[in-house]
Amino acid sequence: DAKTTQPPSMDCAEGRAANLPCNHSTISGNEYVYWYRQIHSQGPQYIIHGLKNNETNEMASLIITEDRKSSTLILPHATLRDTAVYYCMTTGANNLFFGTGTRLTVIP
Amino acid sequence: GAVVSQHPSRVICKSGTSVKIECRSLDFQATTMFWYRQFPKQSLMLMATSNEGSKATYEQGVEKDKFLINHASLTLSTLTVTSAHPEDSSFYICSARDGGSSYNSPLHFGNGTRLTVT
């Protein structure tokens, strides 16, 4: 599985878009990019995943660069409940290995 | 959507006793489940892969005789922490993927079990 790099922390004002970057420069052709988040003392929550095309669902948008070496998770209108640790992962295998993630704090 | 249920959510036990944690897939069958451990302010670490009807696969450094995993059915995996010690106190989380879905479908996680060994 390709290694991912994320900033350790970010702040975002409530109501604004939160853009969380992730570098995965060693991603291979068949590996997907997955995003999860973990709110304190809970299990990780699936957000979105993609291979090479941009993806959008009810929670977020995922923008993957053309060379697939990086991606950005976008929360269009951050709320206080979006405060969490966000994990970006890549995998072609059956399991997921977690990095250190980005701690997003949404500020009122 | 797919739901993974973990029980108990919290458990306190005395040093030297054993604790069993259950992980159930409620609305799908899972031939494979995964067990993670998370210490305070750290990320999740994969402990083992639980395979229905066969032995679990443990990650390097995880003692298989201490962390017993049983996956007797397509909807239930259990993790037993044997002879628990205070250093085993941690947040244990399981996950599973719908066995009938595509290989890239997301894993679903339980809400974790906080184990405190006194």
Description:
The complex is a heterodimer of chains A (108) and B (118). Chain A is built from no helices and 9 strands. By secondary structure, chain A is mainly beta. In chain A, β5 (55-56) and β6 form a beta hairpin. Chain A is globular and about 40 Å long. The termini of chain A are far apart. Chain B has 118 residues and is mostly beta strands. Chain B is built from no helices and 11 strands. In chain B, the strands form 2 sheets. In chain B, strands 2, 4, 5, 6, 9, 10 and 11 form a 7-stranded mixed beta sheet that branches. In chain B, strands 1-3-8-7 form a 4-stranded antiparallel beta sheet, with no helix packed on it. In chain B, a hairpin with a 2-residue loop joins β7 (67-73) and β8. The mean pLDDT of chain B is 92. The chains are: A mainly beta (108), B mainly beta (118). The interface between A and B is medium-sized, with 21 and 24 residues.
Secondary structure layout:
The complex is a heterodimer of chains A (108) and B (118).
Chain A: E1 9-13, E2 18-23, E3 32-38, E4 45-50, E5 55-56, E6 61-64, E7 70-75, E8 84-91, E9 102-107
Parallel strand pairs in A: 1-9
Antiparallel strand pairs in A: 2-7, 3-4, 3-8, 5-6, 6-7, 8-9
Chain B: E1 4-7, E2 10-13, E3 19-25, E4 32-38, E5 45-51, E6 57-58, E7 67-73, E8 76-81, E9 90-96, E10 108-109, E11 113-117
Parallel strand pairs in B: 2-11
Antiparallel strand pairs in B: 1-3, 3-8, 4-5, 4-9, 5-6, 7-8, 9-10, 9-11
Largest interface: A-B, 21 and 24 residues
Alpha plus pi helix count of chain A: 0
- Mass-distribution shape of chain B: globular
Q: Name the helicity range of chain B.
A: under 10%
N- and C-termini, Cα separation of chain A: 37 Å
Termini separation of chain B comes to 37 Å
Q: List the secondary-structure elements of chain B in sequence, H or E.
A: EEEEEEEEEEE
In terms of DSSP E residues, the strand content of chain B is over 45%
Give the number of helices of chain B.
Answer: 0
